[in-house]
Amino acid sequence: MLRSCLLSSLGFILLLNPAFSSESTKNTQPTKAGLQFFESKIRPVLVNECYECHSVEARKNEKLEGELLLDSKAAMLKGGDTGPSIIPGDSKNSLLMAAIRHESFEMPPKNKLSKQVISDFEKWIQMGAPDPRSGKALEIQKKEIDIAKAREFWSFKPLSQATPPITKNKTWGKTSVDQFILSKLEAKGITPNERANRQTLIRRVYFDLWGLPPEPNEVEQFVNDQSPDAYEKLIDHLLAGQHYGERWARHWLDVSRFAESNGYAFDKDRPAAYHFRDFVIKALNEDMPYDQFIKLQIAGDQLGPTDYMSQAATGFLAAGPFTSQQTQKERERSRYEQLDDVIHTIGTATLGLTLGCARCHDHKFDPVSSRDYYRMIAAFAETGFQDYQHDRNPEKYKKEKVAFDITHKPFIDARLKYEKETLPSKLAIWLEKRPTESIQPKLSEWHTIGPFTAANFENAFNRRNDPEKKVDLKKTYSKGKLKWTPQPTWTDGKVHNTLKGNNSANYLFRTIEVPQATPLDISLGRDDAIKVWLNGKSVLSKKVMGGAAADQDKVKLALKAGKNELLVKIVNAAGPSGFYFKAKDTTPPKKIQTIIALSEADRNEKQKQELLKWYAPHDAGWIELNDAEQENMKKHPKRDLMPVFAARKGGATYNFGADTRKVYHLVRGNSNRKNGLAKPGFLRVLMTADAQEKQWMQEQSEKAKPRHPRVAFADWLTDTKHGAGHLLARVMVNRLWHHHFGRGIVGTPSDFGTQGFRPTNPELLDYLASQLIKENWNLKPIHKLLMMSSVYQQSGLSIASGLKHDPENQLWWRRPAIRMDAEIIRDNLLAVGGTLDKKMFGPGSLNQEDKRRSVYLRVKRDKLIPILQLFDAPDAIQSIGKRNVTTVPPQALAMMNSPFIRKLSENLASRVRADGKKSLEQTVNDVYAISLSRQPTLEEQQQMLQFIHYQTESYGKNPKAGELAVTDFCQLIICTNEFVFVD
């Protein structure tokens, strides 16, 4: 659009500046020169650049943006959603000027106005904005969504009770699916295809369910198996295999925008994100009911707080991009963008609805109000994303803990006995001789050294560098590049963002002197992790990502009399790093001073205990017993913890204060324009009635306790009677159909709204959705129902009746060839070469030549795997329900020239002719059997033999000419369309 919406967001910052008032300068009568200036300089620009989106005509055409009209003087003074666009006589504070200068917005976004035009507008406003256009500003009535009418749209209706229609042809169909398809074909006079041959079928089902080619012996066995249930046994075998989950997980990972890094400029890695991928594979292999599969991804941490699968599932919410480099001002906006990513992904992935389009205003096309949008994201207000430490063996820990408690009890008993029998008398002596002034420690200036770099963050945290062994302020490291540096300007109680180095450690050292043993409370802040030692003894070790701030960690130091050495290690992942330190005042708290001032007789029991508790860390005897207990605590059994990147209540997010865990209704999506607190809720059009919302938000009991909002959201999403369950089922069975047949019954698998395609066979869609629910939401029975059908098993031949009445095959009278996904092309290459590593689960690799299946390759957003990108793998930025399929020259060039492809061709050649003695005829046959699951025709065999002979001659006297020629032949077969397409 050349004339873009000039001021669709002008009202966003009106309330940020009090000068943006609805009161303009005093009106004066425009001069003739002023009116002429408007007509010659201003009106033409408004007409050409603004009216398309900001005029009465734009409103008639439903193109009005920001409720802003610019086609009359009164309308410009009134402005849009939040106030006037111009202030006559004050160009500096007129929002129009900020927009056309591209200072706050970029309006028009595609073609910034020339400097002269901008100067003309500034001059026009300064002269009082003379404008001859008369008429009152149009009162724009906001159009409310008619929910009752909206529920009549096909995808929002309850599932119809569709029954398979009766067809004329009684022999072609094998399942109820065929009756729905055949009925439509017969109505059009189309005859469907016959069954594909067995070689085609076994290759088709293997790639559909496993994403791997069948072995030649498996093809031969199936072709020769004449039993009537041979095909059904093949389907059952593949559905029960572990490779099924690996193949179909890739489809769900697409819609989940799964990645293992943050994205954006620094693209920080998420080493523990792979658990979500493993969850999807395991859940599919177990045939976890789809409604449970969805519930765990929305609220698994609440439904199964100690269960691995439940925790890993919430990686779905956490998979979106996340920038870690931003200013404080940007954090709140980024938080809303994070929540928008969550609800947008949930919408497209599970409901086929673009819910995110309602962020700034009611959805332009679908019945999703902005009110519904903010109530839905409010259900995720408390949700953050971080590594959760999962205990892999809780029973073992429980057993060891019981044994430890028995051996540790004497240490506790000794300290408690001392506190009861000895400490009171020691306190009495101290009270008699206590110093008149509190002991104030003497702190030296800080010294720093670093950065000590490492391969990654974990190594930087765990590696024991020389300063940890012994602090020598005169010693240097890294050939003199690192030395201790005094920091005389550092002030305690202030964050110092001066540390540097990615994946590195910086050390800070100071001494603390006290005349007698005493405790000292200190406050620490760190970015990103910290370790602290006092006199060589560890007192803190914490790894929590986040910027440095006061009071992130609080530690009580047990200082000995004299000089104490304090060593701090700050570990940073990326960017600048900060540190904070403050020693608390050692003067007794006012409450303790009040108790001390009382006589012994006047202190009640509670006051005596409070005084003893405060005094204990000052007493040498108590310190000795407490230290012994703490030393023994080092023998405390350790949990077998494994980090899992997942969603957590109160987990890490963009922290910006008291509103961090709240969601407000925002005016046009602007986090600076709040319009009331949003309470968790759901999409009204997918509830039988508004009053029904309470049944998910509250427990169905006498007390009616409120439920966790994400649990309630998950229940609403899967409720087939009163909630969104019917649409959830429709969308999922359509995805199954899409991946089995190459196109969904609804051609837009992630858009079931008014802008998406209508179903070509709505009765079949509802029937399949009903079957999914009937089958307890298990997906494998639906797979089998589809794959056992004649429509799935038919060949891809073109027939006259089909070409005449349905040339685009909308009614499925043939089974078209489908190009393999990028990951399957790579897996196929590894499989035919005999080098595929079938190890499952665990961390992946960024090396495209890794031998494991492609689903285990790491998805790093700024470093995607080249061969996968070449064949249209998604970028993992947003949910993708339907991949692009391109045919471009670089694909062919890579297959012909890539060293990786050449190596795989050599592997195939070695596999079929390991000893070099096999005849060329048999070699050709074996390559076809392995690569294409069939034997070559006689003509193909002769052509390939001629090719091998020609290539052998081309290598001249090279002793490996024959071997190279066979490799060339193998690469030729790999480069054929048949290798990367499934018929």
From TrEMBL:
Every Cytochrome c domain range: 29-158
InterPro entries, alphabetized: Cyt_c-like_dom, Cyt_c_Planctomycete-type, DUF1549, DUF1553
Coiled-coil regions, chain positions: none
Signal peptide range in chain numbering: 1-21
One Pfam family named in its UniProt record: PSCyt2
Record-level Gene Ontology MF annotations: electron transfer activity; heme binding; metal ion binding
Superkingdom, taxonomy of origin: Bacteria
Keywords carried by this UniProt record: Heme, Iron, Metal-binding, Signal
Protein name: Planctomycete cytochrome C
